[in-house]
Amino acid sequence: MPIADLKSHLAAAMRLFRVPADNPDLARAQFDAFSKLIPLLYFILISNTIAVAYTYLNVAPDWLTMIVPSVLTVLAGLRTFWWLRQRHLVRSDADILRNLRATNWLTLPIGAGFTAWSFALYAYGDPFAKSQVAFYMAVTVIGCSFSLMHLRSAALIVTLIVDVPYVLFFFATGEPTLKAIAVNNLLVSGAMVTVLFIYYRDFADLVASRKSLLAQQGATQALSDENFRLANLDSLTELPNRRRFFAELSSAFNDAERRNVRVAVGIIDLDGFKPINDNYGHSVGDRVLIEAGRRIREVCEGFGPQRVEFARLGGDEFGLVVCGDPDDADLLRLGQRIGDQVKLPYQLDTGHTGPSCSIGFASFPDSATTPEALYECADYSLYHAKRHLRGRTVIFSSELEAEIRSRGVIENLLRTADFSTEMDLVFQPIVDAMSEHTAGFEVLARWRSARLGLVSPADFIPAAERIGLIRPLTRALLVRALAIAKTWPDHIRLSFNLSAHDVCAAEGILPLISIIEKSGLAPHRIDFEITETAVTFDFVRAQQSIATLKAMGCGISLDDFGTGYSSLSHVHRLPLDKIKIDRSFVSDINENPVSHKIIKSLTGLCDDMRSPVSSRASRPAPSSTACAGLGCDFIQGYYFAKPMPGDAIGDYLVKEQLRLEGTKAKVIA
Fold first, then answer.
1. How does strand 493-498 pair with strand 555-561?
2. Which of 191, 315, 406, 570 is 20 to 30 A away from residue 607, measured at CA?
3. Active site residue: 316, 502, 527, 633, which one?
4. What is the DSSP letter of 129?
5. What is the Cα–Cα distance from 197 to 570, expressed in whole angstroms?
């Protein structure tokens, strides 16, 4: 064998008797496991030593039966006590490596000492006593080796120090029984070393696998933490979002209820934000929102002694949770500081602007007894501020509570309403701007209450949303609307409005899908109109619902486009078939150059996205003509027809056909 190979094998053999220093994780695992078994090792040594010393007590010198075993037992006991103390200590990697190496080399003198003492006793005993020495050494080395199995190098040293002299000594006696014992012990030791190598390899693999698993768990946890952070973070302003706000509100409310102290909810709305978006564009609007959010956050962080949690709820609306037992004076002071900061000028590319803000507050226990009701009271305070005290702070009061009670009349009557008899459906034509043919009808609901008479959708639809009746109301109206639409000509489509609660419900839109399938009306003849509010309410669920409806073949329209902040940030991410421009831009299109420019810009944007555009034309014909001239593909409104009951649609379509044929005949003539 070449010298180089011999040296290599020798170095590899020497490494078996050393504690590796290149794997701190393995060393720490060895130390932890080893420290639990080392007391057992010393128990084996002490108990076996006492048994052998007792056997030779009357036949061997006292220094061999009393002094030497006592010294060995005391040393073993001290080492046991030392190891028991190590279990609860926190050690560094370097300290662990140093202790393992010390233990590794201590096995050499300890093993040699017990072996020499055993051989010294052997000569004084009778055959039975000599057999006990052989048994003692064999059992002790096997027990100690297995106790040291986590520290392979120490186990190998003990086996080598004890077994080699053992085999040579008893084989040299010439006694057939002892020779057989020596050979047997040699074979058992070989098997034991094989088991030791296999166990150590598996132990090292287990440590490596555990390290890999911990690393994967750490990465998974980091990803989970990041996902949680993103799920609770507003992507534009990097403030806590609506979800985080309501979680904080629930926690703060429960704490205040438990401690019997006050907690307040505030809702902030920027006044005049829509004109900023309209006049300067959404990129400027984004910058205003970011800057306003930064200013409000600074006020909240510096407001003491109360703790104020701050979040963006959506659009230009922000939320506050004021903890620390605030009184009305604290809330007014906080509102004043926020208002003063928000209305400071904003440096923009096109100049300076400074929107004000309206704030509504409500506090527990004065205003409400649940987190949801407290938020509703704050929202109503904001509503009151926007209507009557724009730019001011309003705290929920008994007067506002009385106003809410009047709204509660509608809600209570709605709970007991029979949707099948009290809800009427009317249909407004949607006309192709070029051909002036009716392309479809939008279904509208009307509530005829026995007590209140005709109630506007602007009143009962929000009420249904507030009390959780909007989904059953939607389903009841959809069943009737589809049954009526089935009687129309095949080219006429039905346009049906869905609320945020319909598209963002936890169970999804499965009930609506079931209604569509049972109706027998082809899904491609149905257009669902979804407002920007519905999209921003829970964009992920709304996106999933829209995708499902699209997969069925239904059309999707974004209603009232241009009224919400988030139009451009979401519209490009949705599979929309049509975009409806809000009527507020159309009503004064011929008198207001700004409305004219806005519609022109919106139609151009939609044309680039290859999305048809629809608008609501007012009664005068010029509005309709102007919208068509600016690129609107579909128009609806009183100019063509008022909303009509379902049984009037047939006559309407016949009259329309006669009118268009007459117009065509005049053109040809």
1. unpaired
2. 315
3. 316
4. H
5. 62
